[in-house]
């Protein structure tokens, strides 16, 4: 094998300029594919991390997977009903204390109860529709990142202020209100209650900053006329990989619909999968193009070294050895290109990671999300070697089949 390798390297050195060009082509393919993969996966991980921080890992809602069957459907075997009024039922998770206690026995993570409803916020003659969320502040802080979004005041003040209210800074700007001002919230049932703004937050999501408000759970229950009722339980797990299992077990135990973060963003996960397929397809195409350069140089060497092949065959080298020589030539170019490409890919990725962007005054300076992974280097290198091996194998078969007698006669 060492003899065959020495012969292969000798052939490669004989056409140094073409060899360098082929190695450079493979290095560019490997380098840019690594940089692209690092950027794509980094952006995906960054988006997923932001998404996971913004929503509960598991959320239990006050509804069932399948709607409850109406009594008329049970009694009468009719095709359709007209003028039927469904049985009214006050929605909500009843006895939340018992539900939370049963979940704490086995859920590894933090939980927070919530009561959400629509209300109209009025201040200085202006009205804004708000999604009002009643929370237990210390529990809400354990399942969300609202503390990091606070711009004025403190979310903890909801714990000490019975009628406290935290709203988005954009909603406050539209109303001309600020921390310490008293506003009026009116529920859909017409019940009005006065609240005092104790904090402003900014999440960067316009719909949230303009239409979301937090208040103490008891105050919201009174305003919405739902005493001792909640309509969701947010769970933040220690291990997010257990989200689907926890959601399934909680749904069986409580009878209410439980949604994991993966189920809630199923379409997004599928989009990421398709994007990864496209990314690796492009990477493969780049390396296949680089393989044509290797094919070209090995084919040229086979043509130029016809007499050498005849001599080797006359000395007793079998066809398999002749074929291995030219396959090795392709692999040597592929290995050198892969090594140079890995170095180039690391350099490109490191440079991209230093590029800074600043979009608005509210968003801090940020960088491109680059994820360094040995898997990217391994996959790109393996694809490069595979492409180099195929590019060397095709002309190697032709070289192995050459008849030394015909070569010598042709030379004569």
Automatic annotation (TrEMBL):
Subcellular location: Cell membrane
Transmembrane segments: 20-40, 277-304, 325-348, 368-394
Signal peptide start-end: none
Keyword hit for Membrane: yes
RNA-binding is among the record's keywords: no
Residue ranges constituting the MacB-like periplasmic core domain according to the UniProt record: 19-252
Residue span(s) of domain ABC3 transporter permease C-terminal: 282-404
Entry keywords, A to Z: Cell membrane, Membrane, Transmembrane, Transmembrane helix
Membrane topology label: Multi-pass membrane protein
Family under the similarity heading: Belongs to the ABC-4 integral membrane protein family. LolC/E subfamily.
PANTHER family the record matches: LIPOPROTEIN-RELEASING SYSTEM TRANSMEMBRANE PROTEIN LOLE
Protein name according to UniProt: ABC transporter permease
